[in-house]
What we know:
This protein is mostly helical.
Amino acid sequence: MAPAVNGGAAPSRRRRVVVWVLIVAATVIGFASALTVWVQRQALNTSAVTEASTQMLQNDQVRGALSTYLVDQLYNNVNVSQALSAKLPKQLQPLAAPLAGGLRQLSVQAANELLQRPRVQQLFAKAVHDADTAFIRIVNGNAKSLTSSGGIVYLDLKPLLTQVADQIGIGTRLVARLPPTAGRIEVMKQSQLDAIQTAAKVIKALTIFLAIVSFGLYGLAVYFARGFRRPTLRNVGVAFVIVGVVLLVVRRVAGNMVVDSLSSGNIQRPARNVWLIATSLLSDIAWAYIGYGLLLAFAAIFAGPTQPAIRVRRSLAPVFRDHVGLVYTVVGVLYLLLVLWAPTRLQTTWYWVIVFAALIGLGVENFRRQTITEFPTEASERPTTAPA
Length: 388
């Protein structure tokens, strides 16, 4: 026979308001925490930035845009017609100018093929690594790093220019005489230093703190929701889903704003792909919020008083009561498969794997105890009252 509903007076309106305030506050802080985690783990992480640079070159549109940029840099800083004329026989030297024009498009194709080679991709990754290392040193307070570059952090692609020049036959001697600004992409100016350093300090201080506060407020909301904890757990799950969806929307809207402000014309699509690669961790966090939020919401629904939920618990009662080891073996295997699949990057971080495993284990145990309490002996026994 099923237990009676928990006794006591109905929860007061004030307590319900407090619970909702806690959930809303935890949701807002959780959103801010997700943004700080992305900045700390990806935007301000040299290893992550270097890894992303390789992914960028594997994107056809980004690689095509970079190929065009490198060839434009050569043609803008090297007299290609003169270089070809020096290599042609005297009677063919008048053809150097039209040949240089026709060679330009072929050079873009050659540069594109060159950028697909692992050795050249390593050169690009090293250039990104060096630029980001200088950027991080400045963010951490070492402003002296800017003195040698005129107060500007550059992404130096001159090694790639040399490779492209060799590929199309211009010659490294001409490339060696390129001006220092050739192949340099500006990353940051001295005038932006104060704002970036302040933002970085705030983010470093808040990354872990915000996550702890967010989950702590969710825990307080569930604790104070005595008498209506199951609906509160469902609402927490819905709040997780909302955070994930808002993160995806912000990623799209912010990406459009950044791309529109920094690029135009044919460069916009490659720039948008760069943004998507650079914010891939933010997408992972968003989908993790959505996935675990749906899991929490559905778990609360299956633990509820609806007839389909009661039928599910009745059918699971014998297994929960007599085969506890089998229950946890199945749950453990499914969780290991999820970790191996790793749909988001959080499943590849060992401490998050442990945290999620503990939460899932706690949820399964609570659900199991509720089920065997409702159906202590006979799986076919129907509870006389709905669970609280």
